[in-house]
Amino acid sequence: MRTRPIRALSTPLLLAALTGCSGANNDAGRQAWLVEQLVQDNLVWTSRDPALLAAKYQKMAADPYDFMRGSLGVFYADLQRTSERRETTRFVSQAASGELLLVGDPHPENVGTFLPETPGADARSELPGLVLDFNDLDGAAFGPWILDLRRAAVGIGALTLGLDGCEADCRAEAVLALAEGYSAAVLGLDDLSASRAADSITLALLDDTIEDGLERKRLDDLTALDEEDGQRRFRLDETLDEQGAGLLALSDEEAAQLHRLVSGLRLPAGARVLDGARRYGSGVASSPAVRYVVLYDLGDEGDLDDELLQLREVTDPPTPPSLRPTLPGLFDSQADRAEHAPRLLWSSPRLDPRLDALNDGVMTFKVLSYSSWFDGYNHDDITKDWEKGKIGPADLAALARSVGVLLGEAHLRAPTASGEDPGPTLRAELAQAGLADELLSDAEADLSQLQADYAHFQDALDLLGPCLGADELSP
Amino acid sequence: MTLLLLLTAAAWSSPCEALLQPRTPGVPMAPAQAAAATDTLCLQLDLDVAGRAAWTTPAAGVSRELLLSRGQAELELRAPVASARLNLDAVRSGGAAGYVGVAGESLLPRLQVAEARLDLAPLGLAAAGGLVDDLWVIGAQDAWALPAVALTMGQEQGWMERSDLGLWAAWTAPQRLVTISASALSGEGLARRERNNGQNLMGIVTLRPLGLTGLPADRVELSVMAREGSRGLSYAPDHRVGARATLNHPVATTSAELLLGWGYDTDSKALPAGLSLSARCGKRGPVIAWARVDWTTNQRDLDASDTLTWRVGLGPKLPGPTVAGLPGVQLVVGAEGRYAQPQATALAGAEAAAQTHTVFLQLNARLRGGLPLSPT
């Protein structure tokens, strides 16, 4: 039986509390606060599947970028933490500028390729027109526009932590490019579309995606032809545990749930569902969420029409600091948010032709295409290319500019929580100077805090156990 | 409704008349005031419901709101020595901004108080256990008396919880000169299970100097409170001290409350502080009227971190039963203004969040009645 390691942390806190009240050790206090934020953010997983939560924390502890990905709620909570002096923004002076539909977590790994539905085109026989956009909008919520930009800067900053030699100047160049790209998109200063960005990082992503797409790599990796009936089936990994990544056979309960979900899918006429599996080990923030993959075809003989879908549980996003404690928006339900936030923010509502959202009891699942045409930036790949000298600071800045342009374009598309066009307000806000300076200053402070929190988090895991002590709260 | 009317009609003409006199949790009757012991058992039902239409500026999101600003039901079985009480309030499932709720985001009843209470009236002693009232909050609420209009400062800021798992014991001196109470609570509030082994300990002393004179002792109340507490898995400090002065006159009631804290919501560095000044018409006042000003900060040693909130409201006295000296049915208009300095807004410096103003119309019905039961 596990002892209560929490007491190790509690003793200095209790002593501090009893001896000086306000004189608690700052680092211990910060660590305690961080633990509480993470525990609250992940309470749903604590009670449902502590082993998957522990795997998520392990992933976050292994890499500062993944820690950043798993701590959006901490980022928002820190912005609202009033016990320390916070940098003040010179923006968000009008009510409308505080109720934009936010991407939520616009870090580089949430940008990826899409293959929009183009009637008449055959992606297998000609070079398709890939589009870049945000591929994870689970954090979409209404709030001040500058939060997205600030979070994007944290994402860029976290990316640089793995790039040897990319220090303050290199980061500053990227953050300035992010701000410049955002302003350019909002103010219409040039017609550069991020989807046509031509930096080496993006070109490498596009090259890989086209190669993998034409080869149908993901389909081949995840499925194999059944020798008996000649149909593809998922390759299952019976040895998979909570720490692993891969596909596992469905339990009876999961099979029943997937059956209910599949019956609500909007597939093309004649489509047939061929197989389904539970997918583990993907993502960071939502890694304990239930994920399924579905293999279907369009009814033709052979496997040339076989395609993949992913279904992933969506939960409530962290609440951004808003003008008012509650800022309800345009969405009727979780499913409505999961489906329509992307349609409002994307460059085209049909960017992913399979986008859908389904309810199963209290659970909501988003449905997305899962072919090799849908891929995204990967910070490990970027780090390797950096180490090999294939990319440099200029490419990083170009990537940051692309993210900024994408963000600006997304913000202009979606109506505000009041249903208004955000364009006039955004343009009025950006007409005043100082965005780059503010973002630069905030980015350095936020990155410094992220690094400190990452160290606190690693310490806390050692001290409190794999679920930060919260497993004792699970039923 | 029929049940309510029956309950109301039956209440004060029954053997329960003495037993169901209003009482404040944590404030036992003074020995001299103790009701004669009987084997009476009384059921009391108290419903407090309010609907509000509000307009808020600046308009952001839903700025014209229709709200259930109060939805409470309290059921109590009271005998001379023992009583059991349940209090339920209404909460929005899914929280303020979430979508994962029950049957959509339905309003649900939530247990706010589930209390077993023992009264040793001849000694002026009382004790309670279970999910019990926070005695400081309930004292402030009694002084303010308009929880359907606004929560008390400590509750509204999240510095104090309405109730918590735990125990309290209290003693009132003869002539109600002083009441002393002590509580041991889980420290996590009504919405969370216990997170740590450190219980919150709170003591309150209330002086009623007029107890020495022939005037009603409750006219002047001076209370002080101290709480040693912790919150969350990591025992984050959550200490409070408070002082409150209340002048109760049949025409008007005024109150001043000061609260200081060390730690807040698991943030050990937080140093909350607040001062609340309020005045309202009493039971002999010609109308329902109130004015309140709260000055608050979550970090009292930080510049530009203050928030000032004012509230005023007015309504006619409608005919009908009265509860706690106020008309049971109230139709009121109110206004609120909130001014936050740059370090006090959710996003520091966001000018758009620096000021909000709200005007509202509210219909509130609070009805209470009781009837005798036969012990079985």
User: Any low-confidence stretches of chain B, pLDDT <50, length ≥5?
Assistant: 1-12
Mean pLDDT of chain B: 91
Instruction: Tell me the number of helical segments of chain A per DSSP (H or I, 4 or more residues long).
Output: 16
How many structural domains does the protein architecture of chain A include?
Answer: 1
In angstroms, what is the radius of gyration of chain B? 21 Å
Strand order of the largest sheet of chain A: 7-8-9-10-12-11
List the SSEs and their pairings.
The complex is a heterodimer of chains A (475) and B (376).
Chain A: H1 6-20, H2 26-41, H3 43-48, H4 50-62, H5 64-69, H6 72-79, E1 100-102, E2 111-114, E3 131-134, E4 141-143, H7 145-160, H8 168-187, H9 200-215, H10 217-222, E5 223-225, E6 232-234, E7 246-248, H11 252-263, E8 272-280, E9 291-297, E10 307-314, H12 334-345, E11 356-360, E12 363-369, H13 379-387, H14 393-413, H15 423-430, H16 435-464
Antiparallel strand pairs in A: 1-4, 2-3, 5-6, 7-8, 8-9, 9-10, 10-12, 11-12
Helix pairs in contact in A: 2-16, 7-8, 7-14, 7-16, 8-14, 8-16
Chain B: H1 2-11, E1 41-57, E2 64-78, E3 82-92, E4 107-120, E5 125-133, H2 135-144, H3 153-156, E6 163-172, E7 178-185, E8 200-207, E9 220-228, E10 230-231, E11 236-237, E12 239-248, E13 252-262, E14 273-281, E15 287-297, E16 306-316, E17 322-323, E18 326-327, E19 329-340, E20 355-373
Antiparallel strand pairs in B: 1-2, 1-20, 2-3, 3-4, 4-5, 5-6, 6-7, 7-8, 8-9, 9-12, 10-11, 12-13, 13-14, 14-15, 15-16, 16-19, 17-18, 19-20
